[in-house]
Each structure stands twice: as C-alpha cells, then as structure tokens.
Amino acid sequence: MNWDLTSYFSGFDSADVAQFKASLESEIAGLQSRCAQITPIGADTAGSWEEIFLEVEVVWQRMSHLGSYLGCLTAADSANEAYKAAEAAFATVSAEAETLEVDLKRGLREASDADFSAFAQRPALAECGHYLSRLREEAQRTMSPEEERLAAALGVDGINAWGRLYTTLSGKLEFDMVYADGRREKLPMAQRRSLMANPDRAVRRAAFEGGNAAWAQVEDVAAAAINAIAGTRLTLNERRGVDHFLDVAIFQASTTRRSLDAMFEAIFDSLELPRRILRLKAQAMKTSGVSWYDLEAPLPGLGDNEEVIDWPRAKEIVQTAFSRSYPRLGSFVQSVCDRNWIDWEPRANKRPGAFCTGSLLTRESRIFMTYNGTMGDVRTLAHEAGHAFHSYILKDMRAYGHFYPMTLAESASTFGEMILTEGILADAAVGAADKLSALDSATAQGAVFLMDIPMRYEFEKAFHEERSDGEVEVSRLEELMTQTQRRIFGDVLDEGGEDPYFWASKLHFYITGVTFYNFPYTFGFLLSRGLFAEFKERGSGFLPHYEEFLRLSGSATSEQLARRILGCDLESPEFWKSAIETLRQPVERLETLLLHRLEPDGVGGDEEEG
Ligand SMILES: [Zn+2]
After folding, report:
1. How remote is the CA of residue 199 from the centroid of ligand 1, in Å?
2. How far is the CA of 411 from the centre of ligand 1 (A)?
3. 336 C-alpha to ligand 1 centroid (Å)
4. Which tens digits make up the pLDDT trace of 359-411?
5. What confidence tens digit (pLDDT) does each residue in 16-52 have?
6. Interval between CA 383 and ligand 1 midpoint (Å)
7. I need a labelling partner for 145 at 20 to 30 A (CA). Which of 127, 293, 384, 422 fits?
8. Domains of the chain, first to last
C-alpha cells in the first residue's frame, strides 16, 4: 500500500486495534442501557440527555476512526480474509451503534417544543442546532422504538440481504466478450465498464451486448431484488407516516421538494445543451446518433493515442492548477502528497473505484484510487482532493457538525474538478491533445449529470409509483427503462440504441442504505457550477465565502447556504438555469476545437488562450 495509515493505528495486528474495538463495544452497551432507563427530554432529564448526546458524539468519532481504517485496508487489499472478517465484525458494531440513534430520536420525539428549544440552547450543545432539529424532524416519522428495533433486526435478513444478494450476483456474473477477430473470452462483469469506455466502438458494442445477454440470464433475480428493496421501503414509509417516497430522499439530501422540482424543471427545459454534447460526439464518430455504449467513450482520436501521464506529473498538474487560482487548496494538496495520504498504485486485489475517507478523531483524510495514467485519472485525483479539502476546512468543527449530505459533498469535489479543468486549459506546459482531452471529459460530465442521472431519477420515480400497486414485471422494467431513456435523450440516442437492462446492471438501484442514489450528484454538480461562476466573477475575494460554505455544510440546509453564500434561491428554476448555462461556453469551445481538428491540416490544433 502507498498510504501511511500509522496515525490510525500502529498496525492491523497490533493490540491497540482490538482494545479500541472492545472499549467501543462496551461504551455502546453502556449507553444503550442508560438510554433504556430515561424518559424523554424535559426539564428534569435535560442534564442526563446532554451527557448522553455528548457521549454518543464521541462514539461517532471513534466509529469513524475504526470504520475508516478498516475501509482503507479492505479497499487496498480486498483479498485479505483477515481484513474482510474485521470489516464484517465492524458491521455488527455499527448496527449496535445505530440503535443509539433510535434512542436519541425517542428522547427528541416526545419532548415539547419548549423543552426541545431549551435543550438545543444548552451551551455544551452549541453548534448542534441543525443536527438536533434534523434528528427531531426524522423522529416524527418513526414507528415505536420496539418496532424500529424489530425492523432493523429483520432488515439484516430482509432488505439488506437483497442488497447483498445483488452484490454477490453482480460480483460473480461473467459475460461472453466476442472480439472482432472472433476470439471469445469469459470476463467478470466488473471489467465491462472500462470496455464500454474503449475508444474502439466495436469493442464497446461487444461488451454491451455480451453484458446484457448475461444480465438477461439473471433478470428474474435482479427483478426480485429491486422489487423487494422498493417494496420494503414503501411498507416502512407507510408505517412511519411518510407521505411520499421522495420525502425520504429529499431529507437525506438536506433539501426541499421545491428545490428538487425547480432543478429538474430547469434541466428538462435545457436538454438541448447536453444533447449537443452527444451530437458532437456522433459527428466525430461519423454516426447519425449515439448508442448507450457510446456514452462513456472518449471523442474519437483522443483515447487511442493518449499519452500516459506518470504519477509525479499527475500530482504536478493538479497542484499547478490548484495553486494558480486557489493557493490554499494547492498547498493543501501538496501536504496530502507529502504526508502519503493517497493509495494510487494499480495493484492486484484493489477494489475498483475511488473514494475519500477520514477519521473524526485525527481529522485526517485518505484518498483511494487506482491511477492508470489517463486524464480521467488526473480528474479523479482532483475530485477526491476536493472532498479531502472539505474535511480539512471542517476540521475544527465538532463531530455533529460533520454530518453533511451527499449533495454538498459533491459540490466540494466538483469545485476541485472545475479548478483543474480551468488550470489545464491555461497551462502552457500542457499540450493541445491533453487540453482537448480535459475539455472533452469536462463536457462529457455535463451530459452525464444533465441526462444520464436525471434519467435514473425519472426511472426510479416511475418505478416506485408502479411498485406501490404491486410487483413490477421484468418486461415492464425494461419498457419503463427504454421509454425513460428515449424521453430524456431524444433523437440524439439512436433508435434501438437504448439499454433495456440498465435497471439490472446499475448497482446504484440496489444500494439499501440510501434511496434515490442519483439526483444528489446532479444537485452537487450544478451547485458547484454556481459557486464557481461566483468565484470567476468576484475573484479570490470569494474564496473565504466558499470556505464558509464548506464549514457550514453540516450545520445548515442547502437552501440556507445558497442564500447566505450566493444570495441565490434554490427553490427557483432561475438559479439552476444559470448554472446549466455555464456549460455553454466549454461546449462551444470544444465544438470549435474539434471542428478545427477535424479539418485536414488542423490536427493537433493551435494553443488556446486561457
Ligand atoms: Zn465524490
């Protein structure tokens, strides 16, 4: 492993890991029995509840420390059975710790408004107001504590088991890859995605078709899982008094229905812009439109002769870009590299994907990724560094101020990516091909966030509506998926170019802990474009406000933050429209560069000004 994990523990086999876990378990058990004996928050119990809240806060800090450590180890060496066993044992501790939340909610739910506001104003709970109000709001939509405990216990073999079944299924599923020369190969499903981003269209199509044939073999299992997961949620919503299934997702995203509707209204009014990105791709491929398997492909001519960027150069590109417009971010990334906080090397048994994790005890972060030398990997580094910087800005906030939603987390990471793109385009040391590649991946993201993700949201919404009336058959799932893709992508998606099995192959529909694991990405993407536009307009004087936005991300709603930092109303489509509009200039620039490049003697292109 490349990263230094010694600030977590001296080593995995050391006695301090076992001791840490044992004392955590006994703290949780002690808190559980104390909670069981206390009546809801009131004048006479406020002091005891304050102690409980403060101790639970420490439990969360310690949980994040151990959980982050084990997460790092299993990601970096997923074949290590000892790590896996330790992570499974930790899941049991997590489930116990989560029952503490049931108790906290019971304490808050039955408190009167006056008792609650007196409680939230206690000095020891300063800067917890947002957290407490949210927990109390959530508590209004719960069953009795006994029923909640039963639901949690049954969930291990119910909804969560369906999620695990799906993970096992997709992990073991193999597909037939048939190459142009007739060669056949059985490949694990995990390799399909990178083949579908291959510069060669025939390779992409073969991976797409082979993959879907494999999914067709297990369609009934996937359909049973997606139906059971949604069905459980709908039943629990009804028992908990939740009016609409979207309310849960909106609460988790810490936003409002009006903001979500305003965002989608703006997106659906502006679909022509992201469609233009795909039209450009079709033009470059010399096809009438794109197929599903073209969505992740680089522009023709970019992916095949892309030069490998070595790791020291990747760090340099990110640091130069960051330091140019945001020196504090640049020096932060420098220190992340100097302190060996990144596991980047491609190695066998590394988990796919990338993430940023951290400990609320040490207030340090770690970045996990597999660096293969592409511009896309450089972008991943900037993305994860954006997350790490978010944690760095939050480091002096109490643990209860760290529970920020995914919407705001993704704003921080996308902000990092935007600074990177801008820096690359302005950097004379970066060649024209790399610049074009950076612009391609930045605009391609626009198509993902403004069409692909909204499509997933629309599908999931329609599926939940139909699921309320009973199980949804495989044929209907396919139909619903195809229709939704047609509606969002329009004529830029070739007739027959849809992916009818996307509901089965996309893991995000099977994540049991978070519902509607899609729109927060688009929300964060657009919000960060709004922040970035403000930064461009106001210059470096805006950066302290940006940092305030990050610092308060766990202490206010998205609407409150946008009003305070940007003076914008997220509940109005205007904000979202102007955020979408910021994509127009890069799209036009790419069009110009590409058309120039497609001309016979324009290969390589001229240096573009920043
Ligand atoms: Zn992210």
Report:
1. 25
2. 8
3. 17
4. 999 999 999 998 988 888 899 999 999 999 999 999 999 999 999 999 999 99
5. 999 999 999 999 999 999 998 999 999 999 999 999 9
6. 6
7. 127
8. 15-157 (1.20.140.70), 174-217 (1.10.287.830)
